[in-house]
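Re: duplicated header lines in exported structure tokens

Our pipeline writes sequence and tokens for each protein into one text file. With two proteins the header for the second block appears twice in some exports. Here is an export where it did not happen, for reference. First protein block:
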Amino acid sequence: MPKLTTFPTLVEAWRTTLAHVGPLSGAVWPAALACLVVSVAAGFAWRFDLPVLSFLLSLGALGAWALVAVPWHRYLVLGERPAGAFAAPFAIRRQHIGYLLAIMMLGAVLLPGLLLAGLGGLMGGQFGGWGGRAMALVALGGEAAGLVFFVRLLPALPAVALGQVSDTGMILRLTRGHFWPLMGIICVAAGLVMLALTLLGLALTPVPLAVPLLFPPVLLFASLFGGALLSIIYFDLANEQD
């Protein structure tokens, strides 16, 4: 069983991102630029109280992100260098569609727990006493189950990008016994990213329009770091299975 260690894995992901983001950006910059432009537009739409437009633009940014994320995973794990910047930069492959479906699947995994939490809070307030406590426990159990499956299924993203996943059962078998190491790595990485974004937001708040303009590039880099992290985790787990 491979031993996933938190800080060595995070350091390796950081170094990998810094070392390889240049070659990748030179090949997929049209899709990355589209992702940034649409993300900036979504930020402005939200700032000007247009939530529906912001949501639709965010979906468009997610589609553009798949065009960046799939070659990123394939480059890091397989050493497959992307084609040139103008060699069909927006060509849709089966892996891109699968990647978007995998993201939606991960969101769907968390949805029942969130619904149970909302229902538990609503019914708990009505019943009160032991009934309220019982509903709170049910909601907590649903959230915990959703979180466990969400964390264990995260390596499905690089697996789909590589075309190496057949079903969710394969990923669950791959991550069996690794929930806590995975949880530790993800929590520390998310905490560091959130801290960096918070400090950046505080520094940029006094500058008009700086946040919607500068946050998307930072978020794109953070997403590449997260992709490198998942690629390393998947590579280590998959190699141990062979």
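Second protein block, exported in the same file:
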Amino acid sequence: MRKVSKLALVLAAIVSFLFFLVYKIRYDKIYGVLEVLETFGQADKAVSASRQILQPPTWQRVSDNAFVYSGHCTRLPGSDDICPALTVLAVASLETNDLQKMTCQLWYDSSIQPISVPITVAKVGNAATSTDPKNIVWSPYVLTCESKFAAIMPFGVSLSLRDESSSRSSSSKTAATSAFSAYLHIEAPVLAVQPSGNEQPTDIVACLAPQENHVDSTYPALENVLLHYYFGVREFYLYDNGLTNKLMVALGQAVQQFSDLNVAVLPWNLPVVLDKNSIEQIIANDCHLRARGRGYTTNFVVGLNQILVPKSGLSSVKQALEQSQKSGQLLVDVHKFCSEYPEEQAKKYKSSRMITALQLNVYNTDLSSGLKVKVSYRSGGGQHQVSQDEIAVHDYGNCNNYDMDVNGAESVRDRTISRQAVQVEKFLGNFFPLRTAS
């Protein structure tokens, strides 16, 4: 009888232990989510964009056939959800159906493991594909991970894609490790800075596209930032593909001198060969998502030699956009002030500083024909052409053409900026070297 009792007690203990294990496993699975819900039950206070510590993106390898750059929470207009979906910018040499097999997992504060969520894949716009030296075709993609907890802000995302070719050619042990997991920080939505006193608020973000090579771009980039600042733009993202230490020092001095100037430098370490159109598509999407995530209603991407200039006697980009009475995606004409043209000779417009925009005042209509820069202004409204009499982009890069007649019909003189030479030099001239006597 005692043996039967002991056996029953042993069996009861084993059953109890098994039930405990089942409970413990299930508890661990939901513990992280419960902790997050408890932690984020109330809305967080908004963080000022200028006070936020930047966590810059960088290209991450998911597999030999896919790379990802940045992750952004996307919010629906009028919705109180913090992060209903996550948008990830990527390039891949795979078809959409193959990328659809990617695993997306979101990380939340206090969670002990990530949460797997559904993923959808779309090729970016009409961007052309790019072929690298190995004849591999690369295309830009947008990956969308649908959050299961729209009211909670994830801080990171893990993406993995098993390399099937490696799996077929490797042992099972090696194949098990071939699904490398890339990790991206998720850009959290914050509120734009609202100035105090009588200062006018700014809601415009300018993004400077990465240069195509690594030549010294110190003064073109510095002139771009400071002239845009002169025209009322306060927020800048610079995509770095060769920016110099000298520029970083100069921008640091500018930020100290102008308290409301905010500059962030984002690495652009592209891992594969992409055509110019594909790069522009990725940069434009990243810029737009960053701007909207911080509550800014206007954003645009320009090259280091391009300045968005208000016309008709207006003093700021914001005023010019408001005067257009259009919203949505605005198409702004580009005027090619080719560097091959002779410099300004009129004494009353001549600058004492090495500021290109004050030295060149002739643009070529033939070389400018059909060139546009897209400005995302407010929401909705479709796509609209804006009059060049209201706002235009001045491009001061070279045109690789030395057979231009400054007095020809295709050459148009525009002194919108050079007329303001005295004010411009007083405002930012000390950042540029003096011109040598001629």
